[in-house]
Design a protein that fits this description.
The chain is an alpha+beta fold. The protein has a single domain, classed as YbaK/aminoacyl-tRNA synthetase-associated domain (YbaK protein, Alpha-Beta Complex). About 25% of the residues lie in helices and about 30% in strands. The strands form 3 sheets. It has a 5-stranded mixed β-sheet. Strands 1-8-7 form a 3-stranded antiparallel β-sheet, with no helix packed on it. A two-stranded antiparallel sheet has the order 4-10. The longest helix is centred in the N-terminal third of the chain and has 9 residues.
């Protein structure tokens, strides 16, 4: 049986080409996903949800090779500050579980900001909205798919 997630249906409706990659049904860290798929880590992105000082929620999409710089993230959306939401809040706010959160088709509309390093590569991997499923698409298509803006929001991972 072929799995079709809401983000896949959304991309189909918009006519945006994509490829689905699977890696099992266990939640993996972003670097593990890149390694398992045999892809460059700088092309694999994770979706993070935050709450601003104004109580608005935001989605930030950053490469797995780094983290989210909260100060840069806040500045990119005009907030004084943003903080990561608690894991228990993720499902009710987005409709997704930790490890399977996509920046597309979020239950509650939120502004989406993608780290500008996505534009350094032609390809872009992001969660398909289900653990074990990744979507490969053109980096430039994320704007059409989510209304996202690009900004420098990445905090490099010092461990690399």
């Amino acid at each position: 049986m072929e799995v079709k997630t809401n983000p896949m249906r959304h991309l189909d409706k918009l006519g945006i080409p994509y490829t689905v990659h699977t890696y099992g049904d266990v939640a993996l860290g972003g670097m593990e996903v890149a390694q398992t798929l045999g892809e460059k880590p700088e092309e694999v992105f994770k979706t993070l949800v935050t709450k601003g000082k104004s109580n608005a929620y935001y989605v930030f999409v950053v490469p797995v090779t780094g983290g989210l710089d909260l100060k840069k993230a806040a500045a990119s959306v005009g907030e004084k500050s943003v903080s990561m939401i608690k894991s228990a809040e993720l499902l009710p706010l987005t409709g997704y579980v930790h490890g399977g959160c996509s920046p597309m088709c979020i239950k509650r509309p939120m502004k989406v900001v993608v780290d500008s390093t996505a534009l350094d590569n032609e390809r872009f991997y992001v969660s398909a909205g289900r653990i074990g499923y990744q979507l490969e698409m053109a980096s430039s298509d994320i704007v059409k798919a989510t209304g996202a803006v690009f900004a420098d929001i990445r905090r490099p991972d010092e461990r690399l």
